Amino acid sequence: MIDNSTTTVTASNTAIGVNIHLKDSHEIISFWCLHLAYLSYGPYAANNKQVTKLKQILQGEYPEAHNGRQDNIMALLKTPEFIKAVQNSDKNALIVCGDFNSPSHLDWTEDTKSLHGGWVVKWPATYLLQTKTNLIDSFRELYPDPRKFPGITWSTVHRFSGEEWDYTIPEPLDRIDFIMFKSPKLKVSDSFTYFGNELPNQIPNHKDNDYPSDHFSVITDFSINF
């Protein structure tokens, strides 16, 4: 369905945006792939029993160095090419996806706080992106209940951490990879996670896994109405 006519409109160290021209039509999909900052992973702070204030958790999202995930999203929201893509999303379908290295504000709610160290958190990476653009989380569009359908993407091989504790420390598992969209022409028909054909072995026994990533992949099928 897609020909070789793909134009890069902008690129940075955290985002790349391309226009995909669909074969045999005049339709364009504005496709953006993100890879946000990976340091100061929020669930680590949320599950630290010495952390007593929400501000402590969120400090990792917008540190004084201005290199956090909130900073990444704020930079994206100020990017002229992205602003144009959002404004034109009624005409050209907009898809934003990638590794956010952050949970979703849709998942850390009052109903689920028992699963997240007792915290309710409006994670700014997803919250700002969705509230400022009206992008739709494709997985949550199909499965709105995070308790029934957690959609975990971290991690395929890091279920337990701590080499010096013989990998007996539970790793906070979460949904940190997303496919979001904005277009009256797109409808979600399916969305799921994928990790290969075989159950992956955990670290340190992961070298022979048939799936190479430490993240589950997210796959969303869209029906397109042009």
Automatic annotation (TrEMBL):
Residues 87-215 form the Endonuclease/exonuclease/phosphatase domain. One of its GO terms (molecular function) is catalytic activity. It holds the Pfam family Exo_endo_phos. SUPFAM superfamilies: DNase I-like. InterPro entries: Endo/exonu/phosph_ase_sf, Endo/exonuclease/phosphatase. This is Endonuclease/exonuclease/phosphatase domain-containing protein. It comes from Panagrolaimus davidi.
